[in-house]
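Appendix B. Extra example for self-study. Work through it before the problem class; the solution is given directly after the inputs so you can check yourself.
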Amino acid sequence: MHTWSFSRRTTPPNATTPRRRALSVLATTAVTALALTACSAPTTTPSGPEFFDWSDVQVAADGQTVKLWMWGGDDQGNAYVDDVLAPAAAAQGVTLERVPIADTKDALNRVFTELQAGRNDDGAVDLVWINGDNFRTGKQADAWFCDWTGLLPNMSLVSDSDPLLTEDFGTPVDGCEAPWHKAQFSFVYNSATVENPPTTIDGILDWAEANPGRFTYPAAPDFTGSAFLRSVLYSESGGYENVPSTYSDEAFDELTPALLDRLEALAPSLWREGSTYPATSEQLTKLFADGEIDMMMTYGPATLTALVENGTLPDTTRVLTVDDGTLGNASFFGIPSNSGNIAGAMVVANEALSVEQQVAKADPAVWGQFTVLDLDALSAADRELFDALPQSPVVPSFDILSRNASPELSAEWVPAIDEAWRTRIAAGQ
Amino acid sequence: MTLSTSNVDVDRAQRHQRERRERRMPGDAGRPLSQSRGVMRTARLVSTTLVALWFALPFLPLVLWSFANSWSAPAVLPMTLGTDGLTAALANGAVAAFGDSLLLSLIVAAIATPLGAMAARALSRRTLPFGRLVSVLLFSPVLLPPFAAVLGINVVLLRAWVPPELGVILVLVVVAIPYTTFSMRVAYAAYDDGFDEAARTLGATSRFTLWRVHLPLIAPALARSAFLAFLVGWSDYLVTLVIGGGQLVTLPLIIASSAAGIGNESSVAVLSLSAVIPPLILLALVSRARNLDPGKQS
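Solution. C-alpha cells for the complete assembly:
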C-alpha cells in the first residue's frame, strides 16, 4: 500500500514522472479534486501575515521551525540542505527540517487538505521545493503565500528581467515563489561509443537513425520525455521563435504534425525498435548506465558529476552542447499560505539566495546546481567566488550549457503535446 | 559368554523397542499421519529447499548492494565494496526514522491487539446482537481503497484538530484491527471455555482467571496478532505521510523518497535491510511463543 506514489525522477521537482502511471493519475485526480474543492470551499482564503520590512520578518522568524518538503531522491541535494543550508538558517535563529517526499504532489496534497479543513494558519508544510505544474496548480487554488519575495534583501542579487525567473512555465511568478537554482535540459552521450557527436537536435535524430537501437527517450508524460518532445518541436519548427509560447489550437494544429511525423519515422530506429519506451528519466539513465544506449537526456545535469564519480555512469559520460540551444527552467521555493512559520520560511528562502549559499550549492562536489544570481550585477569579489569554482569534468559551465537557451512553453502546451504523442506514437507501437 | 549374552540382551531390547515403535499408530502423539518415503521424501526436500531459496534469494542482492560502493552493469558482482550506502543512509536520517518507525509500530500493536482480541472474543461467543454486521464493519478497512479513505479521513481529523501523530496512530489502529480480529477469531474458535469455567468453579476470581488461565492460553495467538499489527505500522507509507503531515518521518518514508532517485541503490539497500530485520526478529520471537504453547507440549 505504501507504493502508490513512488514516482522516480531526478531534479527538478516539477517532474511528474510516475513509475506507476495509473496510480499517478489517481493522485493527480485527487490533487485536482482537492484543488477544486479548496477553490469552492466557503472558507475565507488565507493571505498570511503582513510584514512591513525585513527586520519585521526577522523578528517574527526568530525561534521558528521550518519544515521544508522536498523530493528526497537526490542524496547530494539532501546533504546540501542538511549540512550547508540548515546551519546557515540556524545562525539566523530558524530551525530548518527537511521532510523527504517521493513526489512533490504529496506536499500539495497536504496543503489542499488542510485548506479544505479550514486549517488556515498552522499548516504542516512551511516551504516546498517546486516549479512548473505544481506551482500552477497551487496558484490556481490560492494555496501560495504571495507578494513576499520583494521583501527578501537577497532578491537584489537576482535579475528582475530574467524570463526564467519571472515566469515559471508560463505562469507568472508574481512574488509567490523565490528562485533557488536553474536547470538546463541536456543531452548526454558516451564518448567511448559516440565518436563524432552531433551538434544539433536534428543531428541527434539523424544520429539515432544511423545507429539503430542506441537511442530512446522517456515516454510522455514523464517530465524529461515531455521536455524532449518540446525540444524536437522547436527544432522541427525552425527554432523556438516560431512557436508561440502561449497555447492556441491553431498553433498546435500548425506545428505538431511535423513533430509527430519526425518521431514516427524515428521510432523503428529507437531502442527495441520503439516498441516500448522507458517510463521515467531514471529508467532512461539506467539504460545509459548499463550501456544499452549511447545517448540520453536529463533536465537535471547537476546530478551527473556525482553519478559519474560514484560509478553509476561510465567515466566517458559527456554532456552534448547543441548549437540550437536547449530548454531551461528554474526551481523555486514556495510558501503555502497556511504555513504557521511564514517568516521563518522567508528567512530560509533569503538565506538560500545569498552569495555564500549559491556558491556552495554550485560546487559540483556539493550539489552542482546552477545559480540564479545575476553574475554581471555581483561585486567583483563575489563574482570571483563563482569563477573560482572547480569545473566539473562532465558538465560544462552554465554559460556554455545555456548558450542559445530556449524558454519553456506555457504549461498548457505540455499536456497537449504529451497527449498527441501518446495517441499517435505510443499507440502505434 | 557374558559378552554374548549381553549382546543378545541388547539385541532383544532393540527389537522390543523397534516393535513398540512400530506398534504406535500413525496419528499417535508425535507421529505424522503418514510417512513419506523415497521419491516423495526427496521431492519434499527439494521443494522445501527451493521455496527456502525463493525467499532467501531476494535478500542476496540486497546484502550485496548494501556493501557495494560501485556496481554497474555488466559486472556480476559489486566492483568495490565499502560502507558508502550506510553513510548515505545515516546522513538521510535512518537512525531517527528507525526509532520513529519502531515506536509507531509498537504503539499500534499495543492498542490494536487487545482491541482485536476483545472483538474476536465477543464475536466468537455468538451472543453479540448483529454479529455479522459488526464483523463486516470490522473488516471494512481492508476493503476500502486506502488513498481515498485516507484523504477523506484526513479532512475530518484536521477539522477536529487531532494532532497529526495521534491521527496516524488512530488510523493505523483501525487498519490493523481487521488483522488482529481475524487472527484472534481463529484462536478463539479453537479455545475451550472449559478452562475458564473450571478455574472459576475452583474459586478463582475473574481477574485471576484472566491473568493466570485465559491470557497464558491465548498468549501465542496474541503474539501473532501483535506481530501483524506491528507490520501494519511498520510498512505504512500513505497514512504516515498524508495524516502525519511530516511530523513522523518513518523508514518507509525515507526509503520511498530515496528510491525515487537514481544512484542511491546502496543506501536504499541498507535502509531496506534495516526495515526487514526487526520483523524477522519478531517473527522468531513469535514462533518461540508458539513453542511455549501448553497445548503443544502435551
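Self-check: The first strand of chain A starts at residue 65 and ends at 71. If your reasoning did not lead you there, revisit section 3.
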